[in-house]
């Protein structure tokens, strides 16, 4: 023990006088004292073959240490003896202390025994009290827990799942960890997740049932909303009709009346019950439209309570997206014309519901998600419309679908959905619709013209007059005629007017709800095409193929005059329906679009009359061109012609307007004049005398008298134009009867009095004129006599005209 405590390193001192053995001894002693390895010393002595030296050194070292050991033992022995003495004295003190303690203990035991018994009783009573308090606390806690459990069961049985979940949350947060009953705790830990799973299952089932029901409800909702938009449009149209009637009656001054156009109080019924949130979040229903969002909001709220809000949002969005995709399916078994209302109503109802959910459902669906769904729906609807429109060959079918799509746009625009893409599709097919409409009108007009009997239309009742005349503003007087009334036109006119009016209304209907505000120019363009291409072409075909008599030709010409007035009504009607002032429509009015048919009708009537007149003009061959005296009552041909013309005028003035009658008579009289001049110019007449010319002068005077008798029918200017139709024959007769025919050579006189005469005809006809003295052998008797000045002037005229030729 002492060696371990007092071990220290011994460093041998250097002594130059020591021998080698002494050095070895010192090294060995130092190594042993320092606890170093003696292996090197052993190997060295064995290698040198002197192990005895090492043994010697070791024995020497052992003997040198024995004295030190003895000194240490002696020192320790003295200390040991002192310690034994101290211990013996201590033992005696311990014995005395032990006896004192024993006495004290006996006294303490005798005194503390009763006290300890009382203390044990107190501790036992305190433990009992603590156990009783703990039991009472546990009983109260269990009672509260059982009350919550009973309340949760009650809410579950009544379907109040949110309240049941609130009870479960209270049980978990307040009682589950503090429940003294391990059995009850295990039961709750097992039942609470099961109850939550049951509630989630029940709510999911109700939500699934709602998803199925809302599809049917959406279709009915869409139909109802679109129907309300249609009703609102109808009310607006009725107001516009009243406004147009007021304007028209004010313009025509039929009677003094004032219209007060007051909109109905239920103007905004379209929005009632659709976008209002008066019901609040409590029931989520919209009674007037019959759809209820309560199951949806209940399911959303329950899932929020269960901590499954994000999962329910995703589930709702995916299911609604699948329903929308299913709504996009167009049945190939049912014509789109029959199914388009259901198709668009289903989509409209879907987005009305989604708008309501977005506005009242908290964060159930975001605006971005609704917009994405709408973009998908618009793209699909545009694709379906493009495909269906490309297949349609009936204008009415395209219009029906277009009207419903426009109502869809009006309905959904109220909810903030952009519908420009849908309207662009409608505008894109504007030309196709009008081409189909023109084709349909062409067929209808062809049928109406084919059914015409070229008889004046008989109207027996006032409603017939209103329906066939007043409704197209083709009356010539504001006074209602007596009935029965024979109209100046045939049944073709009101039939064609109805077709054109229907075209205008269909065109305006297509354009007015397509997103354009000013579309009169487009309607006018297609109306011009209908009139100038379709109706004008059909009338031309009718005139060229079916009109073979004067009476049908006259009726067609009368019809054209009435249609000219009707065309003014067409453009006014288009302007009124398009919502532009009539003055703007009148300012942009072009020429009469049926001018080709009108000109052809008048030309056909004139041609037939000319043919008829030519038959009478053949009687001119019976004229005695070398008469001894002029005929006093006119030649036979002119009397026949005048009788025919008077009969014609008496009939024509009943149905033909004055301007048409004037143009026709002017053409016929001009033809008669040309026939007279042509007959004198032709080879049929070799020569004639002044008496024959004077007879022709009487004929022309009779014709001029005929025109003078017609003056009350025309204006002064028109009467003069009618009389000027005989200008060529009148100027020729005046020239031949003139005493100075050579005045024809004077440019001023010729321009004033003979401007319609051709100098070649004048020369040829003048050469045929013979003096009464120019009989056979008359020249021998008159030789040497003074030449007639008129004859001389005529010869000069002939000579000069020949020089010019």
From TrEMBL:
<dbReference type="GO" id="GO:0000145">
    <property type="term" value="C:exocyst"/>
</dbReference>
<dbReference type="Pfam" id="PF20651">
    <property type="entry name" value="EXOC6_Sec15_N"/>
</dbReference>
<dbReference type="InterPro" id="IPR007225">
    <property type="entry name" value="EXOC6/Sec15"/>
</dbReference>
<dbReference type="GO" id="GO:0009846">
    <property type="term" value="P:pollen germination"/>
</dbReference>
<dbReference type="GO" id="GO:0016020">
    <property type="term" value="C:membrane"/>
</dbReference>
<dbReference type="InterPro" id="IPR042045">
    <property type="entry name" value="EXOC6/Sec15_C_dom1"/>
</dbReference>
<dbReference type="GO" id="GO:0090522">
    <property type="term" value="P:vesicle tethering involved in exocytosis"/>
</dbReference>
<feature type="domain" description="Exocyst complex component EXOC6/Sec15 N-terminal">
    <location>
        <begin position="58"/>
        <end position="226"/>
    </location>
</feature>
<dbReference type="InterPro" id="IPR046361">
    <property type="entry name" value="EXOC6/Sec15_C"/>
</dbReference>
<feature type="domain" description="Exocyst complex subunit EXOC6/Sec15 C-terminal">
    <location>
        <begin position="422"/>
        <end position="768"/>
    </location>
</feature>
<dbReference type="GO" id="GO:0060321">
    <property type="term" value="P:acceptance of pollen"/>
</dbReference>
<dbReference type="InterPro" id="IPR048359">
    <property type="entry name" value="EXOC6_Sec15_N"/>
</dbReference>
<dbReference type="Pfam" id="PF04091">
    <property type="entry name" value="Sec15_C"/>
</dbReference>
<comment type="function">
    <text>Component of the exocyst complex involved in the docking of exocytic vesicles with fusion sites on the plasma membrane during regulated or polarized secretion. Involved in polarized cell growth and organ morphogenesis. During cytokinesis, involved in cell plate initiation, cell plate maturation and formation of new primary cell wall.</text>
</comment>
<dbReference type="GO" id="GO:0006893">
    <property type="term" value="P:Golgi to plasma membrane transport"/>
</dbReference>
<dbReference type="GO" id="GO:0005829">
    <property type="term" value="C:cytosol"/>
</dbReference>
<keyword id="KW-0268">Exocytosis</keyword>
<dbReference type="InterPro" id="IPR042044">
    <property type="entry name" value="EXOC6PINT-1/Sec15/Tip20_C_dom2"/>
</dbReference>
<keyword id="KW-0963">Cytoplasm</keyword>
<comment type="similarity">
    <text>Belongs to the SEC15 family.</text>
</comment>
<protein>
    <recommendedName>
        <fullName>Exocyst complex component</fullName>
    </recommendedName>
</protein>
<dbReference type="GO" id="GO:0006886">
    <property type="term" value="P:intracellular protein transport"/>
</dbReference>
<keyword id="KW-0813">Transport</keyword>
<dbReference type="GO" id="GO:0009860">
    <property type="term" value="P:pollen tube growth"/>
</dbReference>
């Amino acid at each position: 023990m002492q060696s371990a405590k007092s071990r220290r390193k011994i460093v041998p001192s250097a002594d130059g006088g020591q021998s080698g053995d002494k050095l070895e001894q010192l090294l060995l002693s130092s190594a042993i004292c320092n606890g170093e390895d003696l292996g090197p010393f052993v190997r060295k002595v064995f290698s040198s073959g002197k192990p005895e030296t090492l043994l010697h050194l070791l024995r020497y070292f052992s003997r040198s240490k024995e004295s030190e050991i003895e000194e240490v033992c002696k020192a320790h022995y003295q200390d040991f003896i002192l310690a034994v003495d101290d211990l013996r004295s201590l033992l005696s003190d311990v014995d005395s202390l032990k006896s004192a303690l024993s006495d004290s203990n006996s006294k303490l035991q005798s005194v503390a025994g009763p006290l300890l018994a009382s203390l044990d009783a107190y501790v036992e009573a305190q433990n009992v009290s603590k156990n009783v308090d703990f039991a009472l606390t546990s009983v109260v806690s269990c009672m509260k827990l059982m009350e919550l459990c009973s309340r949760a069961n009650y809410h579950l049985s009544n379907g109040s799942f949110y309240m049941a979940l609130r009870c479960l949350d209270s049980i978990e947060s307040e009682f589950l960890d503090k429940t003294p009953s391990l059995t009850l705790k295990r039961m709750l830990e097992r039942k609470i997740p099961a109850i939550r799973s049951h509630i989630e299952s029940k709510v999911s089932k109700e939500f699934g049932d709602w998803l199925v029901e809302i599809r049917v409800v959406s279709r009915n909702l869409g139909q109802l909303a679109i129907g309300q938009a249609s009703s609102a449009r109808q009310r607006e149209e009725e107001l516009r009709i009243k406004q147009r009637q007021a304007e028209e009656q004010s313009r025509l001054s039929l009677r003094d009346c004032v219209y007060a156009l007051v909109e109905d109080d239920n103007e905004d019924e379209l929005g009632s019950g659709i976008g209002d949130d008066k019901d609040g979040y409590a029931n989520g229903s919209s009674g007037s439209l019959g759809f209820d969002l309560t199951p949806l909001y209940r399911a959303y709220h329950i899932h929020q309570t269960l901590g499954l809000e994000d999962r329910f949002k995703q589930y709702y969005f995916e299911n609604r997206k699948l329903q929308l995709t299913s709504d996009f399916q167009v049945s190939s078994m049912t014509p789109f014309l029959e199914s388009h209302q259901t198709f668009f109503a289903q989509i409209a109802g879907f987005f009305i519901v989604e708008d309501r959910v977005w506005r009242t459902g908290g964060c159930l669906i975001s605006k971005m998600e609704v917009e994405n769904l709408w973009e998908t729906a618009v793209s699909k609807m545009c694709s379906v419309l493009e495909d269906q429109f490309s297949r349609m060959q009936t204008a009415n079918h395209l219009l029906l679908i277009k009207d419903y799509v426009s109502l869809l746009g009006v309905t959904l625009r109220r909810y903030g959905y952009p519908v420009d893409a849908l309207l662009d599709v409608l505008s894109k097919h504007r030309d196709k619709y009008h081409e189909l409409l023109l084709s349909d009108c062409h067929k209808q007009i062809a049928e109406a013209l084919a059914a015409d009997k070229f008889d004046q239309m008989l109207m027996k009742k006032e409603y017939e007059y209103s329906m066939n005349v007043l409704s197209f503003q083709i009356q010539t007087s504001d006074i209602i005629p007596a009935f029965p009334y024979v109209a100046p036109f045939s049944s073709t006119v009101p039939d064609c007017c109805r077709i054109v009016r229907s075209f205008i209304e269909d065109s305006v209907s297509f354009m007015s709800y397509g997103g354009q505000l000013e579309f009169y120019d487009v309607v006018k363009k297609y109306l011009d095409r209908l009139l100038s291409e379709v109706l004008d072409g059909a009338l031309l075909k009718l005139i060229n193929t079916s009109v073979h008599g004067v009476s049908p030709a006259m009726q067609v010409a009368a019809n054209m005059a009435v249609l000219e007035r009707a065309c003014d009504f067409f453009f006014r009607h288009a302007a009124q329906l398009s919502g532009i002032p009539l003055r703007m429509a009148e300012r942009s009015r072009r020429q009469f679009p049926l001018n080709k048919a009108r000109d052809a009708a008048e030309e056909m009537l004139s041609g037939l009359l000319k043919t008829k007149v030519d038959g009478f003009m053949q009687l001119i061959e019976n004229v005695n061109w070398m008469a001894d005296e002029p005929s006093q009552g006119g030649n036979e041909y002119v009397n026949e012609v005048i009788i025919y013309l008077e009969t014609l005028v008496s009939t024509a003035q009943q149905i033909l307007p004055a301007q048409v009658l004037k143009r026709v008579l002017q053409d016929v009289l001009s033809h008669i004049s040309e026939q007279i001049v042509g007959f004198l110019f032709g080879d049929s007449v070799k020569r004639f005398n002044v008496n024959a010319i004077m007879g022709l002068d009487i004929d022309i005077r009779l014709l001029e008298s005929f025109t003078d008798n017609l003056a009350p029918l025309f204006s002064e200017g028109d009467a003069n134009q009618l009389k000027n139709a005989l200008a060529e024959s009148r100027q020729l007769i005046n020239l031949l009867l003139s005493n100075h025919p050579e005045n024809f050579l004077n440019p001023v006189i010729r321009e004033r009095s003979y401007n319609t005469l051709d100098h070649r005809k004048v020369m040829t006809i003048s050469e045929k004129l013979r003096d009464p003295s120019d009989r056979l052998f008359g020249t021998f008797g008159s030789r040497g006599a003074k030449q007639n000045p008129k004859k001389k002037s005529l010869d000069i005229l002939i000579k000069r005209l020949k020089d010019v030729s």
